[in-house]
Amino acid sequence: MANLNIDSVKARTFDAIVIGSGMSGGWAAKELTDKGLKTLVVERGPNVQHNKDYPTTNLRPWEFAHGGKVPTDVQAANPIASRCYVFKEDAMHFVVKDGEHPYVQEKPFDWIRGYQVGGKSLLWARQTQRWSAFDFEGPARDGFAVDWPIRYADLAPWYSHVEKFAGISGHRDGLAELPDGEFLPAYPLNAVEDHFRQQLQKSHPGRHVISARCAHLSKPQPIHYEQGRVQCQNRVLCQRGCPFGGYFSSNSSTIPWALKSGHLTLAPNLVVQTILFDEQQGRATGIRVVDAHTKATTEYYAPILFVNAGALNTNLLLLNSTSHRFPAGLGNDSGMLGKFVAFHNYSAKMNAEYEGLQNFTTDGRSPAGGGYLPRFRNVFKQETDFLRGYATSFGASRGSVQPGHGLGASLKQQLERPALGPWKISAGMMGETIPKETNYVRLDPARKDEWGMPLLSVSVAYDDNDAKMKQDFFEQFTDMFTQAGFTNIEARDTGQAPGLDIHEMGGVRMGRDPKTSLLNQWNQLHACPNVYVTDGACMTSTSTQNPSLTYMALTARAVDHAVGELKKQNL
Amino acid sequence: MNRRLAVKNLSLLVGAATLLPACLSQTKSDQAATVSLKHVAVSAPEEQLLAEVCETLIPKTDTPGAKDLGLHRYVLKMLDDCTPAKEQQLFLAGLRQLEETCQQQMGQAFGEGTAPQRLALLQRIDQQPQQFSKEVVGFYRSARQLTIDGYTGSKYFMTKQVVYELVPGRYNGYFPVSNLRVAKPSHGQS
């Protein structure tokens, strides 16, 4: 019996445990197994195997029961998920339904989740820009949050490392505010996007329209073929899962790569309840999990743990990992755990039309989605009455015109040979928000879910800085669009709640001082250094760039550190 | 009974069920529609009326029409599953009022009118909505839009007219309009 127990414990002991298999968890798995560590990845949702589990990937529009639309009863049952742009008939099976995983909204917050192997990396918008020196220096310069314990130079080689493997398309634009990376060829701007780029150079020097940088294989390299991925075929149906592996996801890239090494054990359908802390050893020793279906609990052990559960769920897990040493949550000596949550303000949009360049349209589809304007406000110095600024997604497209009236044979003819409509232009603000103690998550004191986890209670809201920044976005883009000759310019406040940007960050922030932060410069918990947090929870500030690329780079860097420390027997 | 035989018998039953309504030339008002609906109740004659309306909107010409493509079944499916309750009620009320409107304007049932008569009636609703009840106009507009969606989203349309490409494999941001064979619902993006 004793032997059996020893064997059982041995079978449940690994060199490293990774909690979560999404964007950053997949990277942790890849890097750890590349370095030869026997690694367990636990994922709360079901497995989604590349190609095998993409049920809608090759469906034609007419093969969907509702032409791609979400039935009204599904919408009514899922008001939160329904607000997410990927919650359509082709991909809604990859989005968490409201009723399955409830949470508490102290203030309106749309929490969009993907509980499956690959997490939201299956569904993301694939925009990948590096942070710049100005972004890491931001909090210290502008006096908010706490100083980042790292600078751009610390992360630059790790950006290169992950870019080469993931495959990032982009131009080398030579901008200090948006450093260049290891790029595959960029997807080009179209006629009107390019027109705006040129006009802006004249009307607003210092503001740039560049090809959006994205995680698509425009020209695959041997390292991508080695992953089983081939050139992006411009389907732009990414949210279904891509049979070509044309865009980067854990499912198409890091997870199968790690499996191929023979060092990865992938364990789906396991919900982590707590990280085990050994009071004698003064270190984390493993995790207790509950089987999502049978509800049976098991423990797994490893000398190092990577927490990559997705920003808010990482907060939830650490808050729930209490011990005599850490009564308020693992590593939470400072009382800061769960606080200083921030996000990106996506609530401002601009629309316009352009009557020029009528001789051109586009053909095929652009995986990049068009252009990108790096932040131009308060970059080099403070120049407005609000802090920080916004990046902007920018795109132009033409479509056919639908006849508003008429019927019969003439209608049919119009539908079969439709007129080409005007150029339509859209821009979306991606605003940096300031992390504040009053924007927090905590455990609901009473309610638990069916896996025994306390419900997460979210209290996150916009502030005055966000309102001022939004006003500036509207004014600046009205001016820039007007000077570019665009017409029917409309500013639109979407009124959406925080969360729908799906860029929630923080709560377990990095910092120099254990009194005001949870993680050190290597993403280790100050007070429990064999636990690393490298998903969105670690972010000290948000900047304006889509965050995934930075999570990937931070993860690879942290794994390198962890394995180095293990070898030196420091962990 | 072994499993394979059971499955075979089951598929025979399903086959019979789908054939059955088409075998009946007479439809009765207490008979349900051939499409199985969860939220709205549509009788067989109402379904037939809708089929005639759809055919008037998208008639058979040298290319297939609404009946050939079964567009009224798509309209009912979308009405049932993807239309808010208020709009559903307006649609059904308008559909039921349409016969009355026909009697007044054409002196006969919609189904008994000639194709030009039906077209003329719907054209009046299209052009002069103020002369009709809000239910009839609401029905017409929803039916028209759903029929258009059904037509332009049909396999026929997307393979023979404005061809849908699952795998374009290209992007050109400066494509000359003069080279364009047919305008698509959306160029450049998904």
* Strands of chain B, total number: 1
Shape of chain A: globular
Average pLDDT of chain B, to the nearest integer? 85
User: What is the alpha-carbon Rg of chain B in Å?
Assistant: 20 Å
By CATH reckoning, the class of the largest domain in chain A would read Alpha Beta
Mean pLDDT of chain A: 97
Q: What is the distance, rounded to the nearest whole angstrom, between the alpha carbons of the first and last residues of chain B?
A: 49 Å
Distance between the termini of chain A: 31 Å
Report helical residue fraction of chain B. 55-70%
* CATH fold name of the largest domain in chain A: FAD/NAD(P)-binding domain
Shape by Cα distribution of chain B? globular
Question: Approximately how much helix is present in the residues of chain A?
Answer: 25-40%
Largest pleated sheet of chain A: 7 strands, antiparallel
Helix/strand-derived category of chain A reads: alpha/beta
Largest interface: A-B, 58 and 56 residues
> How many separate domains make up the residues of chain A?
2
Family (chain A): Belongs to the GMC oxidoreductase family.
Protein name (chain A): FAD-binding protein
InterPro entries (chain A): FAD-dep_OxRdtase_2_FAD-bd, FAD/NAD-bd_sf, GMC_OxRdtase_N, GMC_OxRtase_C, P2Ox-like
Pfam families (chain A): FAD_binding_2, GMC_oxred_C, GMC_oxred_N
Give an overview in words:
The complex is a heterodimer of chains A (571) and B (190). By secondary structure, chain A is α/β, with parallel strands linked by helices. Chain A has 2 domains: 14-153 and 263-346 and 434-460 and 503-571, FAD/NAD(P)-binding domain, CATH 3.50.50; 186-212 and 347-387 and 389-433 and 462-497, no CATH class. Chain A is 25% helix and 22% strand. In chain A, the strands form 6 sheets. In chain A, strands 6, 13, 14, 16, 17, 18 and 21 form a 7-stranded antiparallel beta sheet that branches. Chain A has a 6-stranded mixed beta sheet with strand order 7-2-1-11-24-23. In chain A, a hairpin with a 4-residue loop joins strand 8 (270-278) and strand 9 (283-291). In chain A, helix 2 packs parallel to helix 9, helix 2 (23-34) runs parallel beside helix 13 (548-567) and helix 6 crosses helix 13 (548-567). Chain B has 190 residues and is mainly alpha-helical. Chain B has one domain. Helices cover 59% and strands 3% of the residues of chain B. Classes of the chains: A alpha/beta (571), B mainly alpha (190). At the A-B interface, helix 7, strand 15, strand 17 and helix 11 of A face helix 4, helix 6, helix 7, helix 8 and strand 1 of B.
